[in-house]
Amino acid sequence: MSTSSSGGADSLGATASLRSVVLAGGGTGGHIEPALALAQCLRRHDRKIRITCLGTPKGLESELIPARGWDLRLVSAYPLPRRPNLDLLRTPGRIRASMRGVREVLADVAADVVVGFGGYVAVPAYLAAWRHGTPIVAHEVNSPAGIANRLGARLTSHVALGADHVKLRGGRLVGIPLRPEIATLDRAKLAARARSDFGLDPARPTLLVFGGSQGARSLNIAVAAAAELFGAAGIQILHVIGARNSMATRPTEHGVPYVTLDYVDRMDLAYAAADLALCRAGALSCAELAAVGLPAVYAPLPWGNGEQRRNALPVVRAGGGLLVEDSALSAEWLHANVVPLLHDPTRLAAMSAAAASYGRRDGDEALRSMVYEAFTAAEAGRRRSAAHAR
Fold first, then answer.
1. Structural Rg of the chain based on CA atoms
2. Residues 106 and 46 in one domain
3. Whole domain around residue 110: which residue ranges?
């Protein structure tokens, strides 16, 4: 663990400075984006702080993190088997190998704190940090919490929760770190520019459709089937299909703009262009939409352990959105429920205010405070141990 001192004083007796933070989280944008938002926040306050990201070669992080200019160190990591099988017998050896890789990174960058966000790489990161004596912060956004962060919560008293419905041992609510362009977004101010950039009509009601970083096939199919109905109602659509998804036939315009894109790297502009969103209910999407006050129709993934439904319920109950089951999503449902809503500016304004009142924009600052808290507590413990040894 690195420390700094002044005037040649004993480093343990001086005030230490946080110099190096390792961020561990990968696999999906829901793990990666909050990590990078925290990285930006840390660097915004201290331009000299070293930020190192941990990831795996197969995760989305190998594409996103280097592209944004952050240092990414790749280590081997494996899913933990949920039931007895041959992989379970191989797990201890695999974890030890992964831990060795992480420990080498921690030593190389003189890590002061490890912050985990879940995903396969967080397991060896937590274990290596614990063995290395490096303070740990675990950040969880889902309910129920993932295996990695349930482990992390047993190794640290600094556990951050992304929302008030998320429960984890010793957890404290901090929110989800959001990118600065999202956290500071003024939708009304940017609306005209955003619609112009996407080739949309500045005066028409606008529906934004997206399914997360990989897209959502059932959303794509339902909205494409309703394209003519939306066009007849004068509603324009900004449809983000997904970089890893596809549509057999992209809808054509019916006298009203229908813009299809594989991927959007400026979601702040997409949010600013829209009056309403139709999307999945990943934790990050729910947090961003609530923070910027964009009403949404949430269609949670129909499989898994139900965490997407739990992500959406709080903002829906607050009045900031609607919930539709994936099996019910159809052109007919959209015509009956979404078209009238987009023609009701008073209701949309009320939903926007409700979403914004539930959302929070300071998750990055709150998590940064916990990182410094973990570091300061560890340094205080080191000083006490050194004084006792004397």
1. 23
2. yes
3. 11-178+362-389
- Look up tokens 């052109």; give the residue: 331
Copy the structure tokens of residue 288: 């961003």
CATH number of the domain residue 95 falls in: 3.40.50.2000
- 277, 136: one domain: no
Decide if 78 contacts 127 (C-beta within 8 A).
Answer: no
User: CA 150, CA 117: separation in Å to the nearest integer?
Assistant: 11
212 and 300 co-located in one domain: yes
pLDDT classification of 30: cutoffs 50, 70, 90: confident
290/379 same-domain check = no
**What is this structure's pTM?**
0.89
Taking the C-alpha atoms of residue 140 and residue 164, their distance in angstroms, rounded to an integer, is: 11
Structural domain total, the chain:
2
Round the average pLDDT of the chain to a whole number and report it: 89
Say yes or no: 16 and 141 in one domain. yes
Q: Where are the alpha helices (DSSP H) in the chain?
A: 29-45, 61-67, 86-109, 122-132, 147-155, 180-183, 187-197, 217-225, 227-232, 267-273, 283-292, 307-317, 331-342, 345-358, 363-389
In the structure encoding, which two tokens stand for residue 78, read together? 């494996």
Residue from 179, 121, 167 nearest 140 by CA: 167
Cα(142)–Cα(108) distance, integer angstroms: 32
> Half-sphere exposure of residue 162, counting CA atoms within 13 Å on the CB side?
34
* Statement to judge: residues 261 and 371 lie in one domain: no
Residues 6 or more apart from 13 whose CB is under 8 A from it? 5, 383, 386
Q: Which residues pair with 71 in a beta bridge?
A: 52
Sequence-separated (6 or more) residues with CB below 8 Å from residue 344: none
CB 341 within 8 A of CB 276: yes
Q: Is there a single domain that holds both residue 291 and residue 371?
A: no
Q: Please, which pLDDT band fits residue 265 given cuts at 50, 70 and 90?
A: confident
